[in-house]
Design a protein that fits this description.
The chain is α+β, with helices and mostly antiparallel strands. The protein has 8 helices and 8 strands, in the order H-H-H-H-E-E-H-E-E-E-H-H-E-E-E-H. The protein is elongated and about 105 Å long.
């Protein structure tokens, strides 16, 4: 900003000096008008239309003192146009500088969030930390949604508590999960499929899919009062891809650890129990079991902890059969 002020004043003073020289060297010619236009435009580009009009008034006064008032009307029109052009240039420059500042700020903050996330070792820990980190960076209300039955449920969020119950798959979260593409609503009140996640929901909504490899495992949902400019959306999309890459690395590390620990085990039951022992802590569960279809029943092959899993589940009953038939987590 300081360089901009110095540059503008240098141009204005140089224009004033050029105006004086043209009157001294060519008093019978009107070569001074372009210099007056340059000075007024430069000052209007810095101080806006009021500054441009003030500079134009001073220029008219100097011109009247130097050559008289006969040509002042047309010169006033020329200087007014110069002030308007300078003000327009100022507005465009301010928008560009503001966008650049926002982009730089967002990049710095998101890099900081990624650095904080890089120390986490499980998918669940990443999901739990992500909303608060984003809210601290000024990104509004943030939440993480995962599939649950026929809809989605929040596993982590910042700020206002969510409305009870799952969210239907027709909303922006469901669309982001189903398509694997970013979904953006500039004004949620104009979207007939909008489903408020909190009592205070409103404004703009941005849903970003999070992947492990090729599979979408969750949706990062951001809500705030003001719209998300295109540059910010692109930055957040890159951030989501970086988080997805970290989730993929954590998944690969967990898979590698599982294979290494199972390589030396030869009993099928012991392998299943060891797999549960490895998988349960990252998932944050106290008990679990592995079941296999045998005819019309699901039979428990292995369990860890104080398991509440039934040893035999009749055909078609419960969530286990639903997951088995759909091939999708629930």
């Amino acid at each position: 900003m300081q360089n901009r002020v110095l540059t503008v004043w240098f141009i204005a003073l140089a224009s004033a000096l050029a105006w004086l020289l043209t009157h001294w060297l060519r008093p019978d010619q009107r070569y001074e008008v372009p210099w007056l236009m340059t000075g007024v435009t430069a000052l209007a580009s810095l101080y806006g239309l009021p500054g441009g009009l003030l500079a134009g008034g001073v220029a008219l006064g100097l011109e009247a003192a130097a050559v008289g008032a006969s040509d002042l009307p047309w010169l006033a029109v020329v200087l007014l146009v110069s002030a308007l052009l300078g003000n327009r240039a100022r507005l465009r420059l301010d928008v560009a500088l503001r966008r650049q500042s926002q982009t730089t700020r967002q990049l710095t903050l998101l890099v900081g969030a990624l650095e904080d996330l890089s120390h986490l070792t499980t998918r669940e820990a990443v999901f739990a930390a992500l909303p608060e980190l984003l809210q601290q960076q000024g990104e509004g209300h943030a939440s993480i949604w995962v599939p649950s039955g026929e809809g989605f449920r929040p596993v982590a969020f910042s700020g206002t508590p969510h409305l009870p119950g799952a969210i239907a798959p027709t909303g922006v979260v469901g669309r982001a999960y189903a398509t694997g593409q970013t979904q953006y609503i500039a004004d949620v009140h104009k979207d007939p499929g909008y489903i408020p996640a909190t009592p205070a929901s409103g404004g703009s909504e941005l849903a970003l899919p999070l992947r492990e490899g090729e599979q979408v495992v969750a949706v990062l949902n951001l809500e705030r009062r003001e719209p998300f400019p295109g540059e910010e959306r692109q930055g957040l999309e890159r951030f989501a891809r970086a988080v997805s890459a970290q989730l993929a690395r954590l998944s690969e590390r967990l898979e590698s650890e599982l294979l290494n620990r199972l390589a030396s085990i030869h009993s099928p039951r012991a392998i299943l129990e060891q797999a549960l022992e490895i998988l349960m802590p990252p998932l944050g569960v106290q008990h679990g079991g592995i079941l296999m279809q045998q005819g019309a029943r699901m039979v428990l092959l292995a369990s860890r902890g104080t398991s509440s899993v039934q040893a035999r589940i009749p055909l078609g009953r419960g969530l286990v059969w639903q997951v088995y038939r759909s091939g999708r987590p629930a």
